[in-house]
């Protein structure tokens, strides 16, 4: 098969659509998106939980997720999930596990980080 410019463009478009579908599948649900004005304000205790989470991420088989539980307009608690390196296979997506922890505790959570990448502007406040 000869690859002319028309076929190459069609292939490029197909790859772009496939990439967009993959990225949208990885996006956080709208319910986890921080909707406040200004940076997400988190307590130093939540920041400490995030540091614990980061330490556990070292050597993890798959990126985890870190969710901040909101009390009013301040993140005062957190839930997270990751796949430890001692496991051969994790059966559930980290986002779903962390989100279920929030739901079980009746918390309003927002996505703070995927893996070690913080995904929202933030500010650490004194407790």
Which regions contain 5 or more consecutive residues with pLDDT less than 50? 3-26
Q: Mean of the pLDDT scores? A: 74
Rg on CA atoms, Å: 18 Å
Question: Helix segment count?
Answer: 3
Largest sheet: 6 strands, mixed
**Spatial gap, N to C terminus:** 66 Å
Judged by helices, strands and strand pairing, the structural class is alpha/beta
User: How many structurally independent domains?
Assistant: 1
Overall morphology: globular
Q: Percentage of helical residues? A: 25-40%
Write down the secondary-structure element order. Answer: HEHEEHEEE
Number of E-state strands: 6
Strand content: 25-35%
Give the spatial strand order of the biggest sheet: 5-4-2-3-1-6
How would you characterize the overall build of this protein?
With 127 residues, the protein is α/β, with parallel strands linked by helices. The chain is 37% helix and 29% strand. The protein has one domain (30-125). The chain has a six-stranded mixed sheet. The longest helix is centred in the first third of the chain and has 22 residues, at 5-26. The N and C termini lie far apart (66 Å).
Structural key phrases:
alpha/beta, 6-stranded mixed sheet, globular, 3 helices
């Amino acid at each position: 098969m000869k690859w002319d410019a028309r076929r190459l463009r069609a292939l490029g478009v197909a790859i772009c659509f496939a990439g967009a579908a993959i990225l949208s599948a990885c996006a956080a649900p709208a319910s986890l998106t921080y909707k406040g004005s200004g940076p997400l304000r988190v307590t130093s205790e939540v920041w400490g939980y995030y540091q614990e989470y980061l330490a556990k991420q070292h050597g993890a088989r798959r990126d985890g997720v870190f969710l901040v539980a909101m009390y009013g307009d301040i993140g005062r608690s957190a839930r997270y999930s990751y796949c430890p390196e001692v496991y051969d296979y994790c059966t559930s997506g980290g986002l779903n596990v962390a989100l279920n922890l929030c739901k079980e505790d009746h918390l309003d959570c927002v996505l703070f980080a995927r893996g070690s990448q913080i995904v929202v502007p933030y500010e650490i406040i004194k407790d």
